[in-house]
Amino acid sequence: MSRTFVGMPKFPVAAKQALANPQLRRNLNHATHTIRAKRGRVVGEVADWEELRHQGAEAKDRVLAHLDTYLLELEEKLTAAGATVHWARDAAEANRIVVSLVQATGSEEVVKVKSMATQEIDLNGALEAAGIRAWETDLAELIVQLGDDLPSHILVPAIHRNRSEVREIFLRQMAGVGRAAPEDLTDEPSRLAEAARLHLREKFLRAKVAVSGANFAVAETGTLVVVESEGNGRMCLTLPETLISVVGIEKLVPTWDDLSVFMRLLPRSSTGERMNPYTSMWTGVTEGDGPQDVHVVLVDNGRTNVLADVVGRQALRCIRCSACLNVCPVYERVGGHAYGSVYPGPIGAVLVPQLKGLTGPLEQSLPYASSLCGACFDVCPVRIEIPELLVHLRAAVVDQHRGGLPSGEALAMRTMAWTFDRAPRLEKAQNLATGVGRLLGDRHRLGRLPWPASAWSTARDAPAPPKQTFRQWWDETHGEQR
């Protein structure tokens, strides 16, 4: 049975577990810094990069403002091109549609192009429950699947693994599901890639059904677009007889001209390349060329709820580039599993609570999985104000807990508000603090505080109070000027 994110603990619990894994932190540090440096170099070559960011944001906002119109236009163009369009309200309906389509072909296996949408709805689990094997063909997704693992990054799902770990997974698991890895396999990247290529080739040539997502769907023409770096997507999109594409309804772009903007933004922001090695585009069915039975499943799964929030809807601009993950100091230290979703990092911290609702401890903890440093906005190719959304969602979490017994945090905030409300109260509190500061002498940190403040100080260095307040210092040094 494939693993899922169901039942994951809230972020602080999972993050604490991840921080105790030094190998994970080394893997993440190396990978994120490498991708970050590549992105910085190729973005620096584009003189009008900021203008491109604005164009991308405006195009996505135009789609979101008229989503109903563009979706109907896309359906019309796809149908005219020979494709069959299906509409899915949620994950369960999308899975039922895909499973029934595969079963109608009589096939007991599918090959898959890397797709966040199919991960989001746990399509692999639904196919497995129906007795259908789903083979991941993206190298990183293959590593995750063979290792009975969970993805931890949007672009590089196996970013938490190093080469030696990948070698061990291939040697241990490949033989059980297909062509075995060579006995003399090393951890050289070229040898690992070759082992994966040989293992997958027989699946590509045998499979009758493929499942994909789409990076973009052009409403003007009904064209779906997949960009990739390995060629596995091209194999899935051309060889099988049946192609089923699962697409989130926000993936639309209005026109070909708009698509050209994103084809400059996405590669630089994701893989740090000027363009993707493979860009596959298809419009319905072409007689005698490629799959002859083409289906597109348009998935909502909470997206219209996000659209209803005038602040939160900008999260639907996301083009899944993962640039925000690679610069986030929190993600770099704890990795993707701590976020409890296929959407980790800063974008996951704002997207998941909106798609699922602030319904449980995990979703309510995600908006706090950030230092609000703002690096995520600086690199976002479509200018999503992630820090603004995090604060917006934190306010929503607080509003949910109004009334009843206050939490320790709420009591602390009320105490602070009462203290700051009157100058004499604040002055007394400051005098008390400076008295403690003088007693501590030269100490700069308090270390672990007693309960209940220990909940705060276990993850932070509590500074020692100053030996005098600003007012006391001013009176001492500028008293005659008052």
Automatic annotation (TrEMBL):
> By its UniProt entry, which InterPro entries does this protein fall under?
4Fe4S_Fe-S-bd, 4Fe4S_Fe_S_CS, FTHF_cligase-like_sf, Helical_ferredxn, LUD_dom, LutB/LldF, LutB_C, NagB/RpiA_transferase-like
Provenance organism: Intrasporangium chromatireducens Q5-1
The reply on keyword DNA-binding is no
Source superkingdom:
Bacteria
Domain Lactate utilization protein B C-terminal, by residue range, is 402-476
Region (Disordered), start-end ranges: 456-482
Q: Keywords in UniProt for this one?
A: 4Fe-4S, Electron transport, Iron, Iron-sulfur, Metal-binding, Repeat, Transport
One Pfam annotation reads LutB_C
Residue ranges constituting the LUD domain according to the UniProt record: 73-299
Q: Does the keyword Repeat apply?
A: yes
4Fe-4S ferredoxin-type domain span = 315-384
Q: What is this protein called?
A: (4Fe-4S) protein
Q: Which GO terms describe its molecular function?
A: 4 iron, 4 sulfur cluster binding; metal ion binding
Among the record's GO biological process terms, what is one? lactate metabolic process
Bias type Basic and acidic residues, positions: 473-482
